[in-house]
Specification:
Blueprint: H1 2-7, H2 16-22, H3 33-43, H4 46-52, E1 60-61, E2 72-76, H5 106-112, H6 115-131, E3 136-138, H7 161-176, E4 181-187, E5 200-202, H8 205-212, H9 214-221, E6 227-230, E7 234-235, E8 238-239, H10 244-254, E9 260-262, H11 271-276, H12 305-312, H13 319-334, H14 349-362, E10 364-368, E11 382-386, H15 411-419, E12 424-428, H16 454-465, E13 470-476, H17 499-509, E14 513-518, E15 533-536, H18 544-552, H19 574-577, E16 587-589, H20 598-603, E17 622-624, E18 628-629, E19 633-634, E20 640-648, E21 654-664, E22 675-684, E23 689-696, E24 703-705, E25 710-712, E26 716-725, E27 728-737
Parallel strand pairs: 2-3, 3-4, 4-6, 5-7, 5-16, 6-9, 11-12, 11-13, 13-14, 14-15, 19-27
Antiparallel strand pairs: 1-2, 7-8, 10-15, 17-20, 18-20, 20-23, 21-22, 21-26, 24-25, 26-27
Helix pairs in contact: 3-13, 5-14, 6-7, 6-14, 7-9, 14-18, 15-18, 16-17
Length: 738
């Protein structure tokens, strides 16, 4: 009896002796899951089945108390476990034991280009979710970075489908080892926040299959994800939370997905479409899951009483319902009622240090003229830190990813802690953003509107800069509406709050000005030639300040690489060059097709990106030798391996991300000049050389032929490009597919 009790919480104790005596098949953890699912399904009433398909609170759906089947409890991710909220409100419940570790944003994780970091992330956040008794983590997100204006890009893994695919799989596997389902989102084509609830995406089949689906497919086939979240937008004129093609034809039929499809909150719009078009569980807000209105109205959801009534009237059968419930039971038996489910851990030093390591590996050194970085802490006596982002809490706000962190080390605190008493650290704000009401706090009031004297703030910072040994400007974006925030997109590529003028004047006042950008998006840098050093520090979570300081002062050698392109101008991005963002509020056309990110940049002969995809510097140097191939040609059932020697030619240990791109010299349909098909992060001591190898096969040479609706690998000559970024190719090898 103790053994059964330990598997799930919330089971009626009076029922346990009966279970123990009868031992129904669905309670026998040694039986195959499908046997347990069918046994439980047979025992359920119609009302119990329908109840399982919709929410009962903001973040939970019913179990079957009569049978001892527990509730499902979701938690927002993917950067930390959200604080408990009230049953039917978004406001925090004011628990005292729900302060989590905030992990770096997924853009930072992607910037590590390290699958081991992804596994560490998944393990850590999975343990936190398990300890809080959540059985579904709403994340990770793998929507493609199509435009730098998308307010939610910071939650995703960049512009390249191959990179996102490789990084998402270890995350999912490690989360699910904790008995917590990873709910991969947002499926699919959710690439903007403006008009997200109804915009219909018009995209050709090539771009859909080559760019926007591969990471989801990898999550299902390789990650074995137990849950997928539908997206708010439309595709083929149907909302993606109940979309015949995406959910039934593609996900469940073609990909063989056996998990649950969860709606985004309020993403359901019609009962019959939800019944027949692939949705399994409906979540949302208030009256009908979508609109503000009556509280505790979960029985009014599209998959609640309206569904039950249709069945009772004979207008629909239980066929679709049984499929939904089978999937939900499968979820329960994989998580809450699994044979082995550890208790996890929460808010621990181990998790905080894991987050710090991920941040250190993901921070990108964009520019370092005259080796201004790293700063020698023993040689500076007065350090000036400028910028609101040096002190602003970045774990709060931004929409559903907002967190109640156990603590957050700011950049200013991290710099001060690293320098100790060895130097004077002066802080000057330099700029300010308008104060906003705190998110998810009951009774929070709109702050008083205070006039910001931008000139006075800027002049004060510039005055202090003249006498400092080094200036660290810490700016970028924040989590306010219209910045890196759910629900809206940015209006410009430029930095907000007059930061550009401030940076330019700081650079004039002090040649040792280091610019630190905190963001989840690319920004314009009109001052790029005026400053010697630029660092992209992302939203780095609980240990953000300590991670940043370790890079600035050289305790850790930077090794992050950009997971998306920084264009010099917004018009240098394909979506904006061809005029389709954000659309006309009804439709948005992806006119750039497959030419997203560096694929578009490679096509442009007269313009170069500000910083290319895959770019990132180090405090040491790396020399690439000549790449070689194991053969000159391969057939459809063979593989070919490329090998390149990489040597650390500097004076300190460092890690380099070696990247493999493949280009098709001639094809029937247009193809990118090159596409990422492999990467490897290799650590090298000074003077050490290692051989880095990549093996590819026919699938890596294929493209999706929308005239045949299938993947095609055309015979012909290809090129393998090995380099340090998409625009820094060090060696090229030609080969042929027979």
């Amino acid at each position: 009896m103790k053994k059964i009790k330990s598997f799930f919480w919330g089971v009626s104790l009076f029922a346990l002796p009966v279970f123990a005596q009868q031992k129904p098949a669905y309670l026998d953890v040694d039986k195959p899951i499908e046997v347990r699912v069918e046994d439980a399904l047979r025992r359920m009433t119609l009302e119990e089945k329908v109840a399982m398909t919709h929410a009962q609170s903001k973040f939970s759906s019913p179990g079957v108390p009569r049978l001892g089947i527990p509730e499902n409890w979701m938690t927002d991710g993917p950067h930390g476990i959200r604080a408990e909220v009230l049953w039917d409100e978004w406001y925090g419940a004011n628990w005292t034991n729900d302060s989590c570790i905030a992990f770096p944003a997924l853009t930072c994780l992607a910037a590590t280009w390290d699958t081991e970091m992804s596994a560490l992330y998944g393990k850590s956040i999975g343990e936190e979710a398990r300890y809080r008794n959540k059985n579904v983590l709403l994340g990770p997100g793998v929507n493609i970075y199509r435009t730098p204006l998308n307010g939610r890009n910071f939650e995703y893994m960049g512009e390249d489908p191959y990179l996102a695919s490789r990084m998402v799989v270890p995350y999912i596997r490690e989360v699910q080892k904790n008995g917590v389902a990873a709910c991969v989102k947002h499926f699919a084509l959710n690439n903007q926040e403006i008009y997200r609830g109804h915009i219909n995406v018009q995209v050709d089949d090539r771009a859909l299959h080559e760019i926007y689906l591969p990471a989801f497919k990898a999550a299902v086939h390789e990650g074995q994800a137990w849950a997928i979240m539908g997206s708010y937008n439309k595709y083929k004129g149907e909302h993606c939370c109940h979309n015949q093609y995406l959910l039934n034809d593609l996900l469940k039929r073609d990909w063989g997905f056996d998990g649950v499809v969860v709606s985004d909150w309020g993403g359901v719009h019609d009962t019959k479409e939800a019944i027949f078009n692939g949705l399994d569980m409906e979540f949302g807000s208030w009256t009908n899951g979508l609109n503000w209105g009556q509280s505790n109205a979960y029985d009014n959801y599209y998959l609640a009483h309206p569904y039950l009534n249709l069945i009772k009237k004979g207008e629909v059968t239980e066929k679709e319902l049984n499929d939904k419930v089978r999937r939900i039971l499968r979820l329960v038996f994989r998580t809450n009622m699994a044979k082995e489910r550890h208790f996890g851990s929460f808010g621990t030093e181990e998790h905080a240090l894991a987050g710090r390591t991920i941040a250190q590996q993901g921070i990108v050194l964009l520019q370092n003229k005259k080796n201004v970085l790293p700063v020698d802490a023993s040689k500076v006596k007065r350090v000036l830190v400028v910028g609101e982002n040096a002190v602003k809490r970045m774990t709060v706000g931004g929409g559903s990813s907002s967190l109640k962190a156990k603590y957050e080390v700011s950049p200013l605190e991290g710099i001060k802690a690293r320098l100790g008493d060895g130097a004077e650290v002066i802080y000057s704000p330099g700029y300010a953003s308008p104060a906003v009401k705190e998110q998810d706090v009951l009774g929070a009031e709109e702050p008083d509107k205070m006039e910001i004297d931008a000139d006075a703030l800027r002049n004060d910072a510039v005055k202090w800069a003249k006498d400092a040994d080094v200036v660290f400007f810490v700016g970028g974006l924040n989590k306010n509406d219209g910045q890196d925030c759910e629900g809206n997109d940015r209006s410009s590529l430029s930095l907000p709050y007059e930061q550009d003028q401030l940076i330019a004047e700081l650079a004039k006042a002090n040649p040792n000005t280091v610019v630190v950008i905190i963001s989840g998006n690319a920004v314009a840098m009109p001052w790029v030639k005026q400053v010697p050093a630029i660092v992209e520090a992302w939203y780095s979570g609980t240990e953000a300040g300590n991670a940043l300081a370790s890079i600035l002062f050289g305790d850790v050698n930077p090794s992050g690489k950009l997971p998306f392109t920084f264009p010099a101008r917004l018009e240098d991005n394909g979506a904006h060059a061809l005029g389709e963002h954000p659309g006309d509020s009804i439709n948005v056309k992806y006119n750039e097709s497959i030419f997203v990110g560096y694929r578009w940049a490679d096509k442009q002969k007269k313009t170069k990106p500000l910083f290319a995809f895959g770019h990132g510097l180090s405090y040491t140097t790396f020399a690439y030798g000549k790449a070689t191939a194991t053969k000159k040609s391969l057939t459809a059932d063979e593989t070919i391996t490329f090998t390149v020697p990489v040597k650390n030619t500097g004076s300190r240990e460092g890690s380099e991300v070696v990247q493999l791109y493949i280009g098709d010299k001639k094809s029937a349909l247009p193809r990118p000049i090159k596409e990422l098909k492999g990467f490897s992060k290799v650590k090298l001591a000074p003077g050490e050389e290692k051989m880095v190898s990549f093996t590819i096969d026919k699938t890596d040479l294929s493209y999706y032929d929308d005239t045949q609706n299938r993947w095609v690998a055309e015979p012909g000559v290809f090129e393998a490009f090995v380099g340090a970024s998409s625009d820094d190719i060090r060696s090229t090898v030609s080969f042929e597919l027979k």
